[in-house]
Amino acid sequence: xxxxxxxxxxxxxxxxxxxxxxxxxxxxxxxxxxxxxxxxxxxxxxxxxxxxxxxxxxxxxxxxxxxxxxxxxxxxxxxxxxxxxxxxxxxxxxxxxxxxxxxxxxxxxxxxxxxxxxxxxxxxxxxxxxxxxxxxxxxxxxxx
Length: 144
Hints:
By secondary structure, the protein is mainly alpha-helical. The protein has one domain: Growth Hormone, Chain: A (Up-down Bundle). Helix content is 70%, strand content 4%. The N and C termini lie far apart (52 Å).
């Protein structure tokens, strides 16, 4: 009562196909989640959104911009002054949203190494607005 020799190969192919399908579906879920998070963050006008962040969205390709944006966000929210601002103004929920946004952007970028040091600076408010516009454009392209 042995298994046919082709069965393990067939199961492996099915498993690989399922993983690819799930990964593709995850990508379909991440972009709307990123846009939702950006909508929440850009609606709130708080003192912490006036803090400066690296302008990672200038002069990049779409894919590189997502990766660089994640890197800039991570460097931003890990800074002591930024954490203090969010704690001081009772905006720890926004800090958690920034961390989640970073994770989702990293998933979308699928790049392991992104340039992280940007000379130009912009406000977090402007950065999030421009990132939201870029993500909405990306979503529109996917829908058409």
